[in-house]
Amino acid sequence: MKITVGIVDYGVGNHASVRHTFRELGMRCRTSDDPATLDDCDLLVLPGVGAFRPAIEALRARSLDVYLVECASRGMPLLGICLGMQLLADSSHENGVTRGLGLVGGEVMQLPAPRWHIGWNTIEVVRPDPLFASANGHAFFFNHSFAYREPNSHAVCQCVAGGPFVAAVRRDNVVGVQFHPEKSQSAGRALLRELARGLVSA
Fold first, then answer.
1. What backbone torsions phi and psi does residue 54 show, to the nearest 5 degrees?
2. Whether residue 41 lies in the annotated active site
3. Average pLDDT of the chain?
4. Is 180 a catalytic residue?
5. pTM of this prediction?
6. Which residues neighbour 159 within 8 Å (Cβ) at sequence distance 6 or greater?
7. Coil, strand or helix: which one is 42?
8. Element of type H or E holding 184
9. DSSP letter (8 states) at residue 27
10. Is the per-residue pLDDT at 13 higher than 90?
């Protein structure tokens, strides 16, 4: 089975590198904001760069917030990357408190000093999950200043650099990673392969 990945296009996100990596893994990609097109995919990916508030507002302007919550409720696999992971939370404290999609619970907070985390750091599994077993102890590329500050019941991995903070979450068919697997070379590609295959076959 050749997996079709739907990249959610809401005007905020690093679509090109995400699309390129999944295609390198032998998967089809469709980048769209059209629910009919996204419904025809096996896995949805929510990328994101920038600030939380304009990102969630961009989703709402396209009614994609309602669509993504509905997709998650009916079992569609959903992967949030970096800011896309933060959007899965209940709320963010970036530039005031802003409500998120509420798919994995928790709050997104400013990192303590140093207030920006950029570069390669290892992650460790804090809740056993077969989708993340191969990523334990490997380094991934981070670039962010906000994060889940405390592990919650859906935390799967953490990063201890400047933290610890939550590096990955999973709630059933919804997964979020704070780092950029599409920019993390072989470890990132291996993780994306495991996540795509595991979520689609779950």
1. -65, -30
2. no
3. 93
4. yes
5. 0.95
6. 121, 122, 123, 124, 142, 165, 167, 178, 179
7. coil
8. none
9. -
10. no
